[in-house]
């Protein structure tokens, strides 16, 4: 009996230890499983957090860029809009009061200047409005149907007066019958700015818009015979961190707002663009709009 | 200091009394040049007026025409007046200069005084006051009556000429090495000046500097 109990207690003990070991192993795996799950979860959280941080950082960069642009805009408004307006007022007021005593050549010179400045102010203000209008990224855009040849003609007609003054000929070589289904306004704004740039940097010669359908999309070219750009200037314009450079309407060096707007608008319609230019030999800007 | 200038001016003024001054208007907006020219011709009966639209254009104009008076804007597309004033002073020590700008007097006037320029007219000033100051300038009468000097300061007032020069490029988004290339200075000089600008204006970075500049109407 004693022997028996001893035997049983030994087998019992062995059995007990075996069960215990099995439990330990079992719990070990269970624990490992859960820990692994937690670790994976942690990793996911970490990744999410990093992504959020990156997003916030990118948003910050954009905000800061917009901030810079806004500051620049205020500076353009005060330097290139307010002070010319003030002198339009001073000069015209003076002509009204002292008109009879002002020599006719002088009067004519001032009138021409006032008319010219008023036009430039109109163009600049239009552009500032364009830019501000499309700053809201969440803005809903609607595609429209339009004829590219007609659009080129419309834009040329805006600048006809300025072109005539400088002996510049406009050529609309866009294939007729190219009907696009696209965001019309951004494309119009891009063409507007490209023509404005071409005019500002061309003394005489021609400015041509050409384009048409290709298999993969629409190709649009704006070509001038002006002073052209250096490689450095092109790089500056294309650069991501491009800030509007020194503001100036009058001596027609541009305030850099143009290319900023062009880039923003092309991004909206998913288009790409390339500038080809040689100093003194004109500039050609090619835009590709994927179908 | 200004008193000496006044005497020197009056002496020359006597010599020139019967002579029409030869005036250059240097400004990057042709509307402003033409408008000012009209005022000078119709209100003050001056006849010999030239125009320049950039720093380079101004230097050429000075070379080609013997001028007595220069009406000078601060910001041009190819630089600031502060960059050309030392050269003008060296090449044409007798020419009299008046600064005519949108920029606040309390920021730039002191810097220009270091180049012996004591006439400073803000473009936003009303017509009658402007004409009076221009008239004083062209007739070599001291710019302000005794006790009329304005003592207004803002965070940018204490900047030295070189600092204002570099401030202009900083606000335009130029990097240190770009500024160094443009102004023909070493990058370490630019860095030092940059640090001083931040210290004096109590700002920490370009963004804050831009905001402050906007607040005090520093155009660039």
Annotate the secondary structure layout:
The complex is a heterodimer of chains A (about 290) and B (about 220).
Chain A (H helix, E strand, L loop, with lengths): L1 H97 L5 H30 L10 E4 H18 L2 E7 L4 E4 L1 H17 L4 E9 L3 E8 L6 H8 L18 H12 L3 E6 L5 E8 L1
Parallel strand pairs in A: 2-4
Antiparallel strand pairs in A: 1-3, 4-5, 5-7, 6-7
Chain B lengths: L1 H15 L6 E4 L3 H13 L6 E4 L2 H10 L4 E4 L2 E2 L2 E2 H11 L4 E6 L3 H9 L5 E4 L4 H12 L22 H11 L4 H8 L3 H15 L4 H10 L5
Parallel strand pairs in B: 1-2, 1-3, 3-6, 6-7
Antiparallel strand pairs in B: 4-5
List keywords for this structure.
heterodimer, A: 291 residues, alpha+beta, Heat Shock Protein 90, 2 domains, 5-stranded mixed beta sheet, two-stranded antiparallel ribbon, 63% helix, elongated, B: 220 residues, alpha/beta, Rossmann fold, Arc Repressor Mutant, subunit A, 5-stranded parallel beta sheet, 10 helices, 52% helix, disordered N terminus
| Helix-strand pattern of chain B | HEHEHEEEHEHEHHHHH
CATH homologous superfamily (4th level) name of the largest domain in chain A:
Histidine kinase-like ATPase, C-terminal domain
Order of helices and strands of chain A: HHEHEEHEEHHEE
Main β-sheet description of chain A: 5 strands, mixed
| CATH architecture annotation name of the largest domain in chain A | 2-Layer Sandwich
Strand line-up in the sheet with most strands of chain A:
2-4-5-7-6
CATH topology of the largest domain in chain B: Rossmann fold
Q: What is the C-level CATH assignment of the largest domain in chain B?
A: Alpha Beta
Instruction: Report low-confidence residues of chain A grouped into runs of 5 or more.
Output: 244-252
Average pLDDT taken over every residue of chain B: 85
What amount of the residues of chain B lies in strands? 5-15%
């Amino acid at each position: 009996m004693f022997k028996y109990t001893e035997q049983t207690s030994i087998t019992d003990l062995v059995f007990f230890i075996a069960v215990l070991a099995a439990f330990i192993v079992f719990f070990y795996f269970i624990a490992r499983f859960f820990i692994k799950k937690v670790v994976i979860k942690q990793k996911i959280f970490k990744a999410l957090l990093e992504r959020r941080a990156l997003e916030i950082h990118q948003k910050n960069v954009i905000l800061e860029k917009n901030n810079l642009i806004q500051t620049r805009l205020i500076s353009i408004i005060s330097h290139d809009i307010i002070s010319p307006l003030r002198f339009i007022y001073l000069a015209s007021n003076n002509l009204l009061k002292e008109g009879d005593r002002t020599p006719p050549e002088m009067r004519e010179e001032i009138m021409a200047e006032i008319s010219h400045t008023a036009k430039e102010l109109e163009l600049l203000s239009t552009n500032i409005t364009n830019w501000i209008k499309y700053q809201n990224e969440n803005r809903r855009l609607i595609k429209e149907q339009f004829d590219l040849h007609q659009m080129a003609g419309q834009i040329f007609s805006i600048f006809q007066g300025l072109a005539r003054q400088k002996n510049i000929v406009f050529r609309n070589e866009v294939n007729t019958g190219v009907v696009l289904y696209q965001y019309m306004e951004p494309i119009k704004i891009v063409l507007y700015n490209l023509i404005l740039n071409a005019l500002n940097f061309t003394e005489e010669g021609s400015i041509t818009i050409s384009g048409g359908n290709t298999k993969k999309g629409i190709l649009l070219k704006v070509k001038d015979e002006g002073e052209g750009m250096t490689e450095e200037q092109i790089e500056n314009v294309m650069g991501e961190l491009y800030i509007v450079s020194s503001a100036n309407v009058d001596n027609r060096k541009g305030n850099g707002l143009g290319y900023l707007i062009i880039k923003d608008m092309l991004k909206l319609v998913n288009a790409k663009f390339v500038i080809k230019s040689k100093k003194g030999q004109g500039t050609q800007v090619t835009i590709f709009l994927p179908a | 200091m200004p008193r000496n200038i006044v005497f020197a001016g009056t002496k020359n003024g006597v010599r020139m009394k019967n002579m029409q001054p030869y005036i250059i208007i240097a400004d990057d907006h042709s509307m402003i040049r033409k408008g000012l020219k009209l005022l000078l011709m119709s209100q003050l009966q001056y006849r010999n007026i030239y125009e320049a639209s950039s720093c380079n254009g101004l230097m050429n104009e000075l070379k080609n025409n013997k001028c007595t008076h220069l009406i000078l804007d601060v910001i041009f597309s190819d630089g600031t007046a502060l960059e050309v004033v030392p050269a003008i002073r060296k090449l044409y020590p007798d020419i009299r200069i008046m600064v005519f700008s949108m920029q606040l007097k309390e920021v730039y006037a002191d810097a220009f005084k270091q180049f012996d320029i004591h006439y400073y007219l803000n473009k936003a000033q009303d017509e009658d006051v402007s004409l009076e100051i221009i008239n004083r300038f062209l007739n070599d009468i001291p710019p302000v009556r005794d006790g009329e000097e304005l003592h207004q300061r803002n965070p940018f007032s204490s900047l030295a000429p070189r600092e204002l020069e570099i401030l202009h490029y900083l606000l335009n988004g130029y990097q240190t090495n770009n500024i160094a290339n443009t102004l023909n200075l070493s990058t370490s000089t630019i860095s030092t000046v940059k640090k001083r600008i931040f210290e004096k204006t109590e700002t920490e970075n370009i963004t804050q500097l831009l905001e402050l500049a906007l607040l005090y109407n520093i155009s660039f």
